[in-house]
Amino acid sequence: MITIVTGIPRSGTSLMMQLFEAANTPICSDTIRQEDENNPKGYYELEAVKGIVKNNSFLTEAEGKVIKIVAPLVNFIDLSLTYRVVFMLRDLDEVVRSQEKMVGKDQQDQKEKFKTMYALHIEKSKQFLMAHHIPFIEVQHRELIASPEVILPKIMEFCGWTVSMETLLNVVDPSLYRNRVSK
C-alpha cells in the first residue's frame, strides 16, 4: 500500500507529512526543496512527482511509504498499485493569502479565479478517488490545528498508526498557522 498526502498547495500537506514522520512511516522525499520561512519544517517533496503526467513509474518505489502529491496530479497515479489518501483541505481564502505571501505579490485581483480553479482541482481529485475506489480521509487544516486531540485519532485509525497521541500532538504547532481568515 502507498499512502498519498494530497491537497492543493498551502493546504497543510507538509504538516501532515510531519505527522507521518512522527508516526515512523517511511517518507518518499528528497532534499531538493529545502525548508524556508514559508515551511520552516520542510516541504517533504519528491522531485519526480512533478513529472508524474509523463512518468509515474517512481510510485513502485513508494510501496509501504507515504508520498506527497498535489491534488491536480493525483489523477495520474498508477492504478495498478494500491493506495490510501489523506486529503488536506483548507479555507481557500487562506490558501490564496498564504500563496500571496509565499510569492511576495498581491494577487487579490485574481483571487476568485484562483479559488474557482482550486475548488475544481479538489473536486476532480475527489471524483477520481471515488471512481477508482481509493479510500481517503478528508482533514480540515483549521480543525487539525484547533482540535488536534479530536482529529488525530481519526487519522490514526485510518492510517493504522500506533504512535502515542502525545508524540503527534507535539508535531502540531499552532504558531505556524499563519494567514488565517476569521470565520
Verbal overview:
The protein has 183 residues and is an alpha/beta fold. It has a single domain (2-171), classed as Rossmann fold. It is built from seven helices and five strands. The chain has helices at residues 13-22, 71-74, 92-103, 111-131, 141-146, 148-159, 165-169; strands spanning 2-6, 27-28, 66-68, 83-89, 136-140. A five-stranded parallel sheet has the order 2-3-1-4-5. The N and C termini lie far apart (37 Å). The mean pLDDT is 87.
CATH structural architecture: 3-Layer(aba) Sandwich
Compute the number of strand runs: 5
Major sheet attributes: 5 strands, parallel
Q: Strand-and-helix sequence, N→C? A: EHEEHEHHEHHH
Main sheet strand line-up: 2-3-1-4-5
In the CATH scheme, the class would be: Alpha Beta
Q: Give the full name of the CATH homologous superfamily.
A: P-loop containing nucleotide triphosphate hydrolases
How is the CATH topology named?
Answer: Rossmann fold
Q: Average pLDDT, to the nearest integer?
A: 87
Integer tally of domains: 1
Cα-atom Rg, whole angstroms?
16 Å
Low-pLDDT stretches = none
Shape: globular
Topology:
Layout: E1 2-6, H1 13-22, E2 27-28, E3 66-68, H2 71-74, E4 83-89, H3 92-103, H4 111-131, E5 136-140, H5 141-146, H6 148-159, H7 165-169
Parallel strand pairs: 1-3, 1-4, 2-3, 4-5
Q: Which properties best describe this structure?
A:
183 residues, alpha/beta, Rossmann fold, 5-stranded parallel beta sheet
